[in-house]
Amino acid sequence: MADLIRVSTLWPPVRPRSIDLGATTHGLLEAVGLIREVDLAGSFALMPLGVLIRDRIEAIIRKSFVEHGFGAVMLPMLQSRAIWESSGRWQVYADAEALFRVVGRGEEESACLGPTSEEISVVTVASDLASHRDLPVRLYQSTNKFRNELSPRGGLLRAREFEMADAYTFDADRGGMLAAVEALNAACQSALTRMGLPGVLTIPADGGDISKAPSTEHVVRSELGQSQFVECPNCAYRADPDVAMAAFPRPDRHHAADADAQTAKVMAFGCVRGGEELVVSVVIRGDLQVSHRKVAEVLGASSIRTLSEAEFRACFGVEPHTLNPAIAASTSNEMLFDTSVADLRDFTTVSPLTGLIHGANWGEGPLLDQVTPERPVTVHVADAGLWCGKCGEGIFESHRAIELGHVFELGDRYSTPMGLRFVDREGRHAAPLMACSGIGVGRCLQTLADAFRDERGLSWPAQVAPAQVHVIVAAQGEEAERRALRLQGVLAANGVTTVLDDRDVSLGERFRYAWALGLPHHVVVSTRTEDGVYEHTDRAAGLSQDVTESDLLKILSGVG
């Protein structure tokens, strides 16, 4: 039997009230009783109908991962400080104040509520991994994660507690890891498409604190999104600005009038490489920003940070913003030239003594005669307005997007520092190579709601709707109630989930709630028509027609 849901039994109670159909999507989700924000900002409760939507979304995700060879597990959310310290991430997250740290029976912070599960997945696998014969490992779970967001906003899009459907893989070699990454991307794309999400894109992205290796975001375009990507209108190349590469043609007609585009500035950073801290200077065009990710990738550095003003003065002996390439070249441990300055001519630079110097050229004059941009590298953030580095013909445009899924190459980022080992085919001890992915379940729920809402309310795709049919009784009395209950029984026997509005409210209120809630099908039961004939409305199309019971079952065929 399918679900039989009476509106009178729902919590919170569905009371006659004005629903603001122009509210934000998460506001509309609250108004129709699917979610509730509790007293802690960024923390939400799912209500009964919201739970049904969540269950359908998670079932779709799980099916997609099981089809790609993953086994479902449930890893602990409470994780020890020791394993986070062994990976080196405890202090990183603590410094960013992003970690919910837990004080145990003593006074020390001995554990945390996991924002991700890389560490705990390693610990879980470690006790049973001995040989290459035990690999590969493919694990999937869907559990709550915790991140102490400074400013949680956007409802379920950026919450402090959120459900993540994440997967972790362990392989004996790089070929196996890349196959795992392919499977993770395929499973993510399959899951998001099956939900009915329109226009899911894959974007080369920045792995952030999880991984410095390549990663892929699965996104949908949305002005509500907190992610950003650039796209070339000529060749459709798209990527995160921290990953994308721009081109810098000579002459650059697009930036010819931009004075900053004719300036070579120097930025200084502190990098850690092989346990040693280095001072790195980057020469870059004046209108661009340096990508920390790209600098770390070029240098093989484990971390990078901008020098403080005091560190800057101590290192270079000049004030910030007065550093020129000549001083930087003689003082820095490493000197990088971005591709944006490789072909600059007659540009502007700076001298700590005389100020701005115009008409400068590499290898010329008393200031730059010993400085040339040898082996330029790509370390710029590729923002909108720059030429596309792939085709060289289009100019990047910027778009906002909601990040729904993310796939990461991890390599031995966690297995090596945490001491996870296996015996390979040659009898040597080796660290397995890992990959992982995550799909935000709550983000998917709210993104689906936003993608399909209209001027009358929500409109859920059938595959994720909390129920398939909303039964509206358009008359009072025992006969109308008998017909409605009989219909609901017939639908339930045929595997169709049904919501019956049995409240003692006006017909107009019942219709308003039905349209705002947005189940795929509305069926009106009335005593004005003969028994077994109903008015059916397709919520998405807005089309209504009178149908017999058998016709209705044909329309709903295959919907459960």
Automatic annotation (TrEMBL):
Record-linked Pfam families: HGTP_anticodon (PF03129), tRNA-synt_2b (PF00587), tRNA_edit (PF04073)
Enzyme class: ligase
GO molecular function, one term: ligase activity
Residue intervals of the Aminoacyl-transfer RNA synthetases class-II family profile domain: 42-461
Swiss-Prot/TrEMBL keywords: Aminoacyl-tRNA synthetase, ATP-binding, Cytoplasm, Ligase, Nucleotide-binding, Protein biosynthesis
Origin: domain of life: Bacteria
EC number: 6.1.1.15
Stored InterPro entries: aa-tRNA-synt_IIb (IPR002314), aa-tRNA-synth_II (IPR006195), aa-tRNA-synth_II/BPL/LPL (IPR045864), Anticodon-bd (IPR004154), Anticodon-bd_dom_sf (IPR036621), Pro-tRNA-ligase_IIa (IPR002316), Pro-tRNA_synthetase (IPR050062), YbaK/aa-tRNA-synt-asso_dom_sf (IPR036754)
Substrates-to-products reaction catalysed: tRNA(Pro) + L-proline + ATP = L-prolyl-tRNA(Pro) + AMP + diphosphate
Stated name of the protein: Proline--tRNA ligase
Source species: Streptomyces mirabilis
